[in-house]
Amino acid sequence: MNDKKLQPGTPIDLFMILISKKMRYVFLFVLLFMWINSSYKKAAKKAVISSLFSLIINRLIKSVYFKPRPFMKRRIGILIPSKTDSSFPSKHTLLVFSISTSVFLYERFIGSIMWGLSMLTGFSRIWLGHHYPIDIIGSAFIGSFVSILTDKTFRFLKSKDLA
């Protein structure tokens, strides 16, 4: 199926593998720090909730829609093993954008850095041959939208004294 399967060679390949595999730990560390720090706990709570909703949306979309991953449809090499489920949406991208947008809505500086890391994560998924650019763009939109909707819902409930 693939001509040059699983052969990382260049430093950029290795960097993209590192980003794709390990960036989730950076996001978990930031969430843990925010959860422990009482002034950021509300933002961390919203980020976790929006991530859970994003995962549900991911499952729903993948249960009704299948789009072959780039390495399944074309003769391109992949740098690390991948599932053969639907290319859209990208779970990695959904989650990092969901978290970074939630953080951005609360703390612009940290959120901006996390948004940059989210874009790098999405790009790494394309570089590895696991997703198409439109998968990443759509997943970033969904993850961000879910976070904004979660934030708006919390604000609405708070204004009605329900939260």
From TrEMBL:
Q: Where would I find the Phosphatidic acid phosphatase type 2/haloperoxidase domain in this sequence?
A: 43-151
Q: Which residues cross the membrane?
A: 12-36, 94-118, 130-150
* Matching CDD domains: PAP2_BcrC_like (cd03385)
Q: Which domain of life is it from?
A: Bacteria
GO CC terms of this entry: plasma membrane
- Extract the PANTHER family matched here: SPHINGOSINE-1-PHOSPHATE PHOSPHOHYDROLASE, UNDECAPRENYL-DIPHOSPHATASE BCRC
Protein name from the UniProt record = Undecaprenyl-diphosphatase
Q: Which organism is it from?
A: Metabacillus arenae
